[in-house]
Amino acid sequence: MLFPFRTLSALLLILLSAASLHADERIRSFISEITIDDAGGLQVIETLDVQAEGQRIRHGIFRDLPLTKDGIRWGGFDLVEATMDGAPVDTRIQRRDGMIRIYLGDEDTVVSPGEHRFRLRYDVERQVRFLDDHDELYWNVTGNAWAFRIDRAAARISLPDGAVATEVETFTGPLGSREQDAFEQIEDGGGTVYVMADGALDWHEGLTTAIAFPTGIVTRPSVIDRILFTFRDRPADMIALFGTLLLGAALWLIWRRKGKDAPLGRIRLRSTPPEGISPALAQYIRANGGVTNSAMVAATINLGVKGFVVISQNDTTWSVTRTGKTNDGTLPVGEAAILTYLDELEEPLVISPDNRKAVLALLDVFSAVMRDEHGETFHISHANWIFLAGVGGYGLAFAIMWQALAGQTWLLHIMPALPLAIPLLTALVGGTLRDVALMLGIALGISCLMWLIFGALAGALGLLSGAGLIALPVIFAVFAARIGLTTATGRAHKIEIEGFRRYLSAARLKGRSRRNARRRFEAFLPYAIALGVEKQFAGAYEDALTRAMSRGRVPTHVWMPPWYHGTNMNGGSFGGGISAACQAMTSGVNACTTSGSGSGSSGFSGGGFSGGGGGGGGGGGW
Fold this sequence. Notes:
Elements: H1 2-22, E1 26-36, E2 42-52, E3 60-66, E4 68-69, E5 72-73, E6 77-84, E7 87-88, E8 91-96, E9 99-105, E10 114-124, E11 128-130, E12 135-140, E13 145-146, E14 153-158, E15 167-174, E16 182-187, E17 192-197, E18 205-213, H2 223-233, H3 235-259, H4 279-286, H5 293-305, E19 309-314, E20 317-322, H6 333-345, E21 349-351, H7 356-374, E22 379-380, H8 383-404, H9 410-414, H10 421-428, H11 433-457, H12 463-482, E23 485-486, H13 488-505, H14 514-530, H15 534-550, E24 558-559, E25 564-565, E26 569-570, H16 573-594, E27 614-615, E28 618-621
Helix pairs in contact: 3-8, 3-12, 4-5, 4-14, 5-6, 5-14, 5-16, 6-7, 7-16, 8-11, 8-12, 10-11, 11-12, 14-15, 15-16
């Protein structure tokens, strides 16, 4: 009984081993027939005998072929024919990660277990390499990224009429291998070359061959051809180069014709503010229609000087309290808006991040009334041109990335466009066209940065396309900053304001009494804050008082302005102290606004390896 049991066990073991071998999906034979034409293109027929067992190969196989080599398209590709077991088979082409993936098979049909023959015929352009002393085909026959073992790999290469192979080298193994475990044979008097791997190729191993033949057989491209090839091979780079140059030139011409401001010319110092120009309006004119936080602080200080409010400081917290004085209708619009807001508030306005909502509401009201009242009286922003510049920049960035990321997942195209929500939200909340245009520029910068990162990670960006993405937001920023045009009225006021600003920067506050000097200091301080020279202005005031005290012409008793409640200051220290206090108040407001949530290397002379040259890719089952 022992013998039959042992015999049965041995038979079962043999059967299981055979089943295991049979169940191993593989490529039993990979035969490639390659014909080189007179223009350097290839007609390729690949015949694959595949063992399918319903594991990875359920509906058919797929073949990956690279579209690019080092970021350059290596030639036009045309799928001519695909068959399975001699009959036409459904194909589907997918572009991804710089490759094209050709699916052979029907997703509604399951391939029966056993051996099946797939045949793929395709044409590719410009595969012959033109070197100094010879031309050559350097071709990765099988590719090095197959998910299956290849039992037998071979290729027969037919050279153009009149060409004779002068040298052949064939490489096998994984990518980068210089092993030459292959059989090579020159046939038909040198017009045909046959190469075959000596043994089976394991997963991610391939067969690559390099064949040299004399020059003059294949037509070498002319200079014009090379230029046209460059356009075809590097579409993203060409769009980036010429698109950026054209956009930059167009915006430069628009700036020259529509918005080039002439210099202000000679500026004369003036010791008094321009007539009818409030501190906030002075800042508005000087900033070409921009309203800053310091302008609102200056307007608030001016209300204090005029007796309408009292400003109190407690460490880093500020409060603005209404006095009983009423507006007689002579206040500038910005100051009147602040006063109205405080009246409606019916309690002191606390300036701190904890009260951010109320401070932001006041800033919105203040900015709105300034823009509504003065608009573009002093400066024409050309917001329409700024908006069009942003649209042009986005359009060009999309065009660059559409080519660079061809075949990549749509998320890489769409996700960087999400910052477009910024200008859209600005428009929805009632922002001006200029606001929307500037937000569009900010969104462009964010999107270009995202595309730059995604493109680099995907290996899809060339030097020029990457430089183009960097240049687009820079071009927009320069154009947006320069396109505005100052009106004649604005120009006259700018000259006066600049003269007064320079006076405040180095003023010697004259006055026979300390009281008069302080009065001038209080009157001019809001202008110094609005024009950004409060520190220099306070220093000049202190110097004047120090000189006066050294001569014994003024007393040194403690003095506080009635509109400011805070740290006591005496003598010459008041100027610097109140200047620092006003700067701190501006910083407090800022805190409220920011807090919250072709040719190439040879296959010979040590330059060849498995996986090198054109062709390549790999494949698998699906």
